Amino acid sequence: MATRKEDKARLRAARLEAEKHEATAARKRLILGYGVAGALTAAVLAGIVVVIASSGGSSGADTPAAAHVDVSTGSINGVPPDARTGTPPPAVGNLDLKSAAADANCVLRLNLPDEGHGHLKPGSSPPDYHTNPPTSGNHVATPFQQADGAYRQMPDLINFVHSLEHGRIEIQYAPDLPEADQLALKGVFDESPSGMLLFPNRQMPYEVAATAWTQLMGCHKYEGAKTLDAIRDFRDQFRGRGPEGQVPINL
C-alpha cells in the first residue's frame, strides 16, 4: 500500500507533466498567432499597395525627368508624362499681359467668380463648371490633385481644378495642334516648370489656353511668338496666387 509520501510524489509528477503539456500547447498557439498576424499584416500591406496603384498614385521614380513631374505637389493619377524636348522660346517681346493677349488675339477673362472649394472623391463626375476650361469649383480631395508636370493626355477635370487652387498655372492646347506648336508650348513650360502643368484639352473651344484660379486666357488660334509672350505674361502675373497658393514654387 502506497505511503502518503509516495502519493504526494506521484501527484507532483502528474502536475508537472500537465504543466509541461500546457506550456507546449501555449507555445504552439503563440507561434500560430504570430503566423496569422504576419499573414494579416502582409494582406493589409498588399491591400494598401493595390489601393495606391489603382488610385493612380506614383512615387514618380519612373517618370522621365524631361516631364518635370513633381509628385510632392500631388498625384500622377495614371496620366502619362510628356517627356518630349521642348523648343527653347525666343526672348519675351511684350511684358504687358493685356496688350500681349490683344496682340495674340486671346481673350482675357480675369477675376471670375469663385465657384467653390468643396472636395469630391476620386473618379467623381465633375460639377457644371461655368468656364471652359474651368478656373475654380469643387474638386478632388487631397492628395489626388494633379501634380506639377507636363502630360501627354488630359487629366480629369476635378483633378486639375484642385491644382489651380494651389496657385498652379495650366497651359492647355488642342490635341490636333501641330507638333511643332506643341513643342513650342513645351519649351515655355520647360524654361520654368515649377508650379506649372501642361497638357492637351480635347474639350475646350480654344486652340491654346492658360488658366489660374478664377483667371482664364483663351486663344482661338496659336499665333507663334505672340501667343508665347501672352502665356509667359499670364504665368508671371498669376503663378502662386491661388487661395492655397502658399505652396512653395521654385523659380
How is this structure best summarized?
This protein is an alpha/beta fold and 251 residues long.
Describe it.
38% of the residues lie in helices and 12% in strands. By secondary structure, the protein is of the alpha/beta class. Strand 7 and strand 8 form a beta hairpin. Helix 2 packs antiparallel against helix 5. The protein is elongated. It starts with a helix and ends in a 13-residue tail after the last helix.
Report how far the terminal alpha carbons are from each other: 100 Å
Please tell me the overall pLDDT. Answer: 84
The gross shape turns out to be: elongated
Number of strands: 8
Strand order of the largest sheet: 1-8-7-5-6-4
- Rg over C-alpha atoms, rounded to the nearest angstrom: 30 Å
- β-strand percent reads 5-15%
Helix content: 25-40%
How would you characterize the largest beta sheet? 6 strands, mixed
Question: How many H/I helical runs?
Answer: 5
Succession of helices and strands: HHEEEEHEHEEEH
Q: Poorly predicted ranges (pLDDT <50, ≥5 residues)?
A: 25-56
- Structural class by SSE content: alpha/beta
Give the topology, please.
Blueprint: H1 4-55, H2 97-103, E1 106-109, E2 119-120, E3 139-140, E4 149-150, H3 157-165, E5 169-173, H4 179-191, E6 196-200, E7 208-212, E8 215-219, H5 225-238
Parallel strand pairs: 2-3, 4-6, 5-6
Antiparallel strand pairs: 1-8, 5-7, 7-8
Helix pairs in contact: 2-5
